[in-house]
Amino acid sequence: MIIVLRRGEAASEVEGLLSDEGLEYKRLVLYDRDVIVAWGPSEDKAAEKLRGHPAVELVSNVGSKLQLSSREWLGGDSVARIGNVEVGRDFIVIAGPCGIESREQVEEAVSAVWSAGAHVVRGGAWKPRTSPYSFQGIGLEAAKWLAEAAHSKGLPAITEVMDPRDARQVFNIVDGVWVGARSMQVTPLLRELGRLCRETGKAVLIKRGFGNTLEEWLLASEYVMLEGCSNVALIERGSRCWASVSRFSLDVAIIPVARGKTHLPIIVDPSHPAGKRELVEPLALAATAAGAQGLMIEVHPWPEKALSDKQQQLTPGEFKRLMEKLKLLLEALGRRMAPQPKA
Ligand SMILES: [Mn+2]
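^ thats the input. predicted complex w/ manganese (II) ion below
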């Protein structure tokens, strides 16, 4: 359960009551609220005693699996901040290459996505590949190239962290990180990113594993938030499926369903489920129409030479045309594309 405390009221009595009932609990500041998340067998009994207590504003989610990620206690949408970009208000687009391959490649990619109006730059410094013989990424040095190129245009940069041992260094370089589909349930990584998010205020974005349910995805975000991180967003990137018309099956229905359950912003990656360039645009438009609050799209200055995901990375021209269509679609839906941050 979640107990939202009244500001300025001593909570020692509340904590004492939770201990007496044998509950485990953690006190956190999340989304500018003073909260206690508590769990254990006698939750119901403790909740009853706490309702109406002078230090307690709200007791919520009693006995439910979802706690901090749930919409119930916060009562609306939350906003994640990647540098100077707000995710969860106006529509935003994250774009950049699958993998960072050279300084020149990342500079070209950043310049292309910036001129098309992207808000955040992405690029993989470490690449989680199915085969150990495929391009594995350049590592920390590449994250520095990415951040330098993005910051020179006034845009924030994000990259993937796979190994908790790299996390602190990465947080010193970029403005946020994403947890890849393959790492979504690596709980030591989730906890470490949550701690670093709390320390630095930088964002953590969590991709849904391609074999994971909505509930498992939301529970992954609970690990991050339980460390005191309130700068979290979720990325849908499709499921493994028997159908082979695309690389993965983008779950369009999960977008409104997730938005009904969680306050966290929902971003969609249309590139990995598409698997091929010509499917990226229809999936991007479908996800936007279904209520995604942003997109994450792979763009490469010369995709035919890419060292990973060459079939699905858009050319700068294709990306620019997609951005124009997105603006029209958003307008038709009564929504709007966020203004691009200024350098
Ligand atoms: Mn990729």
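The CA atoms of residues 134 and 172 lie 28 Å apart.
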